[in-house]
Amino acid sequence: MSRDPDFLRHLQDELSDGRAWLDRSIVLAYAAAAGLCVVLFTLMTHTAFEWFEWLHGAAPWAVLVWTPLVTAFVVWATRRFVPGAAGSGIPQVMAALDPALPADSRPRFVSLKLTAGKMLLGATALLGGLSAGREGPSVQVAAGVMHNARHWLRPGSAMNERALLVAGGAAGMAAAFNAPLAGIVFAIEELSKRLEARNNGLIIAAIVLAGLVGTSVFGNLTYFGAISVPSLSWGSLLPGLLVAVLCGVLGGLFARLLAASMAGMPDRLSALRRRAPIRFAALCGLAVAVLGLASGGATFGGGEQQVRHMLAGDSDVSHLYVLLKFMATWITSWSGVPGGIFAPSLSIGAGVGHDVAQLVAGHNLSALAPSLIAIGMASFLAATTQAPLTSFIIVMEMIDGRPMVLSLMASAMLASLISRMISRPLYGTLAEMMLRQATARPRSAPPPATDGH
Predict the structure, then answer these.
(1) For residue range 7-28, what is the model confidence (pLDDT) as tens digits?
(2) Which of 3, 179, 184, 243 would disulfide-bridge 397, Cβ 3.0–4.6 Å?
(3) Are residues 158 and 254 in the same domain?
């Protein structure tokens, strides 16, 4: 028969293992440092975009020169100094976690150098007004910090390199969105697929600690505030279903377009991107500037302000916002700058929900607008990433939307299912491209200039 655990003996064993406690302290210290890096990155991106907004307000047409120049500089600096920092960073972390990648090749995708480059160049991209987010890049930023902890841990420690990368990537997600639960689910759904029993407690502690660092700086506030959820009825089912289906189709097309663009299509623009990437980046910057001017500035940046206005009911974005933001985000990603698609995806989904709400306003359903916008955010993000659990939890924590748990979950699942009929998982596809490039090159060759979004 099995005996009950001997509490005193286990307690004595735990307290006597000083090296294990030192390892745990090192991991938690690095988790706090990762959270601080994400906080600093957040402040840098906010400041950079505020400066861009000042320029756009003072001289709107100047962006036709400024944005192409900044885009070309960011792509040049990325390719020259930190090629592994291009894109959002989530595919890089997934590639670093792949067992097929040799251990000495991991610094191609996660390192302190890439963390610093990601922060500087990611903020510079927003200084140019590009349609990029900081949330995806925060995953690579934090993972690079946590990965460095391996130098201080004892051989055979429970927190091996894989566990450190999972903890770091998820900690970056938690700190970026002020959503610890989303970070934990992201670790399971996207990064590790499972947590090992021997270190899952320490991984979760690291994720929560990084999230607390962000909360201590920015306050315990939800990302987009709290929305008022009306009593749902059968009359609201059709608008919500319409939003989820539209977002599923658009998100699937968006993911497929991004993957095809990164792989290289048989067209003149893709040929120009391969032959003259800096010139191509300048053209992309010009296109983003033109789209921004056509939208009255609404498509510049990640789109957080537009989402807040939509949720508050005082948005004046045009019905072309979804199309223009879709194009601006795709072109920004195609250019090869360090920048993510989480925030732009949320804003595109919010635009879909806003448009459907405007469509049904005549049927006295305008009170449903915040709910439809939230459903659109969760649905488009789920369709783009094909990570429905992470997507609906992120949105739930960002809007304090616990009353909408079931509707957000159902819409994210439906949109993700529709997207899977159109496109392969975006991040997994990009990670596979990076792995093929990394393993096909000689070990002595410089890191490949991959684009991960």
Answers:
(1) 556 555 555 556 777 888 899 9
(2) 179
(3) no
> What is the rounded CA–CA span in Å between residue 416 and residue 382?
5
3-state DSSP assignment of residue 316: coil
Q: Give a yes or no: residue 8 inside a domain.
A: no
Domain span holding position 92: 19-218
* CA neighbor of 82 nearest in space, from 38, 129, 126, 141: 141
What is the CA angle 233-238-241, rounded to 5? 110
pLDDT per position as a tens digit, 61-76:
999 999 999 999 999 9
Q: Is 338 helix (H, G, I), strand (E, B) or coil?
A: strand
CA distance 286 to 322: 19
Please choose, from the candidates 31, 399, 410, the residue with its C-alpha nearest in 3D space to the C-alpha of residue 187: 31
404 vs 293: which has the higher pLDDT = 293
Instruction: Kindly state whether residues 167 and 310 are assigned to the same domain.
Output: no
Pair (160, 292) in one structural domain: no
Residue 140 maps to which CATH number? 1.10.3080.10
159 shares a domain with 127: yes
Domain presence at residue 128 = yes
Biggest distance spanned by C-alpha atoms of the chain: 80
Both 213 and 246 in one domain: the answer is: no
Number of domains comprising the chain: 2
Please give the C-alpha separations between residue 104 and each of 110, 156, 444, in angstroms, as whole numbers. 11, 18, 11
Structural domain includes residue 228: no
* 380 assigned to some structural domain: yes
Q: What is the mean pLDDT of residues 315-324?
A: 89
* 175 close to 211: Cβ distance less than 8 angstroms: yes
Q: Which structure tokens are listed for 51?
A: 């400066």
The CA–CA distances, whole Å, from 242 to 41, 100, 220 equal 36, 41, 33
Is the same domain home to 290 and 410? yes
351: closest CA among 294, 302, 307?
A: 307
Cβ atoms within 10 Å of 292's Cβ, excluding its own: 26
